[in-house]
């Protein structure tokens, strides 16, 4: 069975990488603003029933991996931000 990426146009993978980097940068920015470590964020995500390894979280922050929907939901709660801000960066942080 061919890998999913073999059927995806090159422009799409470039676009995905750009989005992943932007989202990862916002996650790191907000995490640092809250003075949380990656481990603290991961533990808080687990309280939302979402488990990610240290390696997975690092790849997300470095823009090497896109979030799934469950991770987005957990991170908006943990980082106290809106979905719109996390995904698009256009809305101010939730207070």
- Quote the CATH topology: 434 Repressor (Amino-terminal Domain)
Which structural category fits the helices and strands? mainly alpha
The number of domains: 1
The total count of helices amounts to 5
Cα Rg: 14 Å
Straight-line distance between termini: 47 Å
Pfam family, one: HTH_31
Protein name: HTH cro/C1-type domain-containing protein
GO molecular function: DNA binding
InterPro entries: Cro/C1-type_HTH, Lambda_DNA-bd_dom_sf
What does this molecule look like?
GO terms for molecular function: DNA binding. This is HTH cro/C1-type domain-containing protein. InterPro entries: Cro/C1-type_HTH, Lambda_DNA-bd_dom_sf. It holds the Pfam family HTH_31. It comes from Kouleothrix aurantiaca. With about 100 residues, the chain is an all-alpha fold. The protein has a single domain, classed as Orthogonal Bundle (434 Repressor (Amino-terminal Domain)), CATH 1.10.260. The chain is about 60% helix and about 0% strand. It contains five helices and no strands. The longest helix is centred in the first third of the chain and has 24 residues.
Topology:
Blueprint: H1 10-33, H2 38-47, H3 54-61, H4 69-78, H5 83-88
Q: Could you give a short description of this structure?
A:
This protein is mainly alpha-helical and 95 residues long. It is built from 5 helices and no strands.
Tags for this entry?
Lambda_DNA-bd_dom_sf; about 100 residues; DNA binding; 5 helices; HTH cro/C1-type domain-containing protein; mainly alpha; 434 Repressor (Amino-terminal Domain); Cro/C1-type_HTH
